[in-house]
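Dear colleagues,

For the upcoming journal club I promised to circulate an example of a predicted protein-ligand complex. I picked one with pyridoxal-5'-phosphate because it came up in last month's discussion. The inputs are reproduced below in full, followed by the predicted structure.
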Amino acid sequence: MTAHGAHGTARTGIVDLRSDTVTRPTPQMRRAMASAEVGDDGFGEDPTVRSLEEVYAARVGKDAALYVPSGTMANQVALRVLGEAGGAVVAGRTQHVVAYEFGAAARNAAVQFHTVPDDDGIVHPDDIRRAIDLAVYHQPAVCLVCVENTHMAAGGVPWTLEALGAMRAAAGALPVHMDGARLFNAAVATGVDPAAITAHATTVMSCLSKGLCAPVGSLLAGPADVIERGRLERKRLGGAMRQAGVIAAAGLVALTTMVDRLAEDHARARRLAAAVAERWPAAGVDPDRVQTNLVVFRPPEPLGVIDFLARSGVLADMVAPGAVRLVTHFDVDDEGIERTLVAIAKAP
Ligand SMILES: Cc1ncc(COP(=O)(O)O)c(C=O)c1O
């Protein structure tokens, strides 16, 4: 057991490294949920939701924020407000909004993606400029640039401020949406204030239900007029909620108590990365480049590895053909890491 009682590997005997979405609300969150003040958020009268939106907007240096059920909905609302039907959205080809939302952008926002290489987690300025120039050659005009920070498929890579500044400059007057599902991992890993990171984006979304352990919810922040239009789009998508303060209360605990400890997850991920690099030197993992809570690697026998780990009580996921993913989070303690290191050393 960890100091947090119900949390840690000992509770289930399984080390679940599939995703940080498997985290469960902390006892403090459950207490906050039980005593949350609520109202009808449809009328803007839920004080806990309002407070969560205000706290997040302040943390990311934006005018206003909108509480939505999921990260996917936050991205979709951003696309509907900032994108244009028939317009091109520049984004990395393995970003969540492109590859893991089941075509939602086409369905919900009628945009088309102009995808660019993002193996290193970054959308490069030259690619943005080239995409914008294509309008001269009878191709769709770019209406929006989307970036992901940290970048999941690239192995949890956080953007540097320099790269963000260059991206912003290349985008010119275009709006930029940052999928910051794991923005706070990026902030903790780089030591940069979230508001400084998001200064380069028009809107930013963050998930409360991943490494921060809240049971439900994400937030979208941006200029007041953009968020006001976002409120309407959330309604259109069926995401308006009523006494949502019950879940927002857990989100407030997430934002105020669970951010700094992400450094522990990052340190544990680095230990896993070192073991992976030692066991499979050609699997594409440089432990020095693992800065947050994700390790993505390509062992010679990925399915055999997943199967062997599962039989050893360690759950891993695959995020692309051949790409195995290990994600550290609050429910994985040092004992779980030790067991995983032993299993990795023996894996096929
Ligand atoms: C980078 C990124 N963006 C967006 C999402 C979507 O969040 P949700 O699962 O809450 O819809 C995820 C979820 O895994 C993610 O990893």
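Two points we might discuss: The chain has two domains: 9-24+260-346, 27-257. The chain has 14 helices and twelve strands.

See you all on Thursday,
B. R.
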